[in-house]
Amino acid sequence: SRNLSATGTGIELLALSSLAPAVVNLVSPTNRTVFGRGTNLCLQAVASTNYDIISRVDFYANGLFLGTSTNAPFETVWTNPPADNWALTATGTDANGYCTTSGVVCVQVLGVTVAITDPVPGVTITEGTNLTIQTCALTDIGSISQVAFFANGGPLGATTNAPFSYIWTNVPAGNWALSATAQDHTGLSATSAVVN
Fold this sequence. Notes:
By secondary structure, the chain is an all-beta fold. The chain is 0% helix and 53% strand.
């Protein structure tokens, strides 16, 4: 405070406030976490400010918008993220519209893909024929360790060597839904679309 008059009857009060910027931290997932294909990622952020309320937190992966949370705990679920390296961030916005962005959290999503390339859908074969089922199986890291083959959900057999194909001998009459499941050396797996 200070005097404003010669008599000292006028007083001016000066209120000083330390307004620190809002703080936003992405607490989940943690940095350098590796996920398998098909895993849903729960992103969680802690946001605070000493002068206002946080009205929303927006979540991003490589700059792509994932979702918004308007209530604590601030979180969103990223469903089935594609295989890639992802830089995750969270941006908090206070009631006055001021924004603060968290530090970057880097994660990796690994993936295995498999598709039946032969036979093609709708093909007709003669009862008792030997049918060669061919696949294309890939993994984002390491190598494919096995491809298993199925007909109407029942196991036919498996192969551990490329090219990943299987000969189904003496195919019985019927309508068959063929599928294949590939697994890499880390244990990640994926199942192909069905070929009828």
